[in-house]
Design a protein that fits this description.
The chain is of the alpha/beta class. It has helices at residues 29-45, 64-74, 93-112, 126-132, 140-161, and strands spanning 20-25, 53-58, 79-87, 116-123. Strands 2-1-3-4 form a 4-stranded parallel β-sheet, sandwiched between helices. Helix 3 (93-112) links the parallel strand 3 (79-87) and strand 4 (116-123). The longest helix is centred in the C-terminal third of the chain and has 22 residues, at 140-161. The model is unreliable at 173-182 (pLDDT under 50).
């Protein structure tokens, strides 16, 4: 196959007509509200209508996967954006919560076949969190929104390519039947 025959599927950054849910933790709201503002601003600037954005608030980051699961089960969204802020303290609490939240969000995206993007800050200091919420290091809420748009469009492109994605075009897939270990 020459380079001219290579198919490339990728998502665009056009949010027109897409519906989004943003699951945002209230804990550390000084930071998470800035992440939320960045996400909404990015979605709207990319073509989403404000009426196609639903914000769902959780008490803290630990609850984000549980609430995201409920949002996904209810359906009606092309992507979910998870926003929160965890700041390391003197105990292992940070490590436990950060691990569970990231694993939970990833598992839900796989289980529901809907993009779920990770905009949960995991920082050592409040200053780092503020910097990542729009001060010096950009707005990670906006970045999570861009990833959600691109992923939603990529999922659409993959679905639209159908059997062609696997190179089968108009024929049924052929393969060996496996009976397990011989």
């Amino acid at each position: 196959m020459s380079n001219s025959e290579v198919r490339v599927l990728e998502g665009s950054l056009d949010a027109t007509g897409l519906r989004f849910a943003i699951v945002v933790a209230r804990f550390n709201s000084f930071v998470t509200e800035r992440l939320l503002e960045g996400a909404i601003d990015t979605l709207v600037r990319s073509g989403a209508k404000r009426g196609d954005i639903t914000v769902v608030r959780t008490p803290g980051a630990y609850e984000i996967p549980m609430v995201t699961g409920q949002v996904l089960a209810a359906g009606g969204h092309d992507a979910v954006i998870a926003l929160g802020c965890l700041i390391r303290g003197d105990t292992i609490h940070f490590d436990l919560i950060a691990g569970e939240v990231s694993k939970g969000i990833a598992q839900l995206g796989l289980a529901f076949n809907v993009p779920v993007t990770f905009g949960v800050l995991t920082t050592d200091t409040l200053e780092q969190a503020i910097n990542r919420a729009g001060a010096k290091a950009g707005n990670k809420g906006g970045e999570a929104a861009l990833a959600a748009i691109e992923q939603a469009r990529l999922y659409q492109a993959i679905a639209a390519s159908g059997p062609e994605l696997a190179g089968f075009e108009d024929e049924e897939p052929q393969g060996e039947e496996l009976d397990g270990p011989q």
